[in-house]
Amino acid sequence: MKKRGRPAKYIGVAKEIRTLYNSKKGLKQIDFDNFKNWYESQNGCCSYCGLTSADSAKLFHKYPDTTRGGRRGKRLELDRKNPSITNYGEDINNLALACYWCNNAKTNYFSYEEFKQIGESIGKLQKVRLL
Ligand SMILES: [Zn+2]
Among 53, 58, 73, 119, who pairs with 67 as Cys (CB 3.0-4.6 Å)? Predict the structure, then answer.
């Protein structure tokens, strides 16, 4: 008899990676192991300001009113470097790990390269807010 439970590919994988993988329908086009490898290559930091997921959670609790009614900010999110590619699963190289504050500020207006510059300043300010 087959054991019930989570699929073998999820065993031992951090909840955060699974949550991100399942957050966008198109991501299923990317093999889970490839996504996991991509995630691990991001060093667990926002691509723009360098905020870690743990620091994002701290800010989420410290500034709950800034997080869209508490719906975002608890963990890092997925951003598309080029937002005109609407399907998250179309190109793994188009994905960027982003904190809520950077993702929200970048919108579809700033390019990835432009927002990297803005993110440096946001990162300095976030360090102060974390004190
Ligand atoms: Zn950020």
Answer: 73
Region of residue 68 (left: phi > 0; alpha: psi -120 to 50; beta: else): left
Q: The CATH number of the domain where 106 resides is what? A: 3.30.40.220
| Reported pTM | 0.86
Going from the Cα of 93 to the center of ligand 1, the distance in angstroms, rounded, reads 18
Q: 103 C-alpha to center of ligand 1: Å?
A: 7
- In the chain, the number of structural domains is 1
* Ligand 1 center–CA 7 separation, angstroms: 32
Measured between alpha carbons, how far is 15 from 21 in angstroms, rounded to an integer? 10
Residue 1 lies in a domain: no
Question: Is 92 part of any domain?
Answer: yes
Between the CA of 127 and the centroid of ligand 1 the distance, in Å, is 11
The pLDDT tens digits along the chain (131 residues) read 555 666 776 676 788 899 999 999 899 999 999 999 999 999 889 999 999 989 999 999 998 888 777 788 888 999 999 999 989 999 999 999 999 999 999 999 999 999 999 999 999 999 999 99
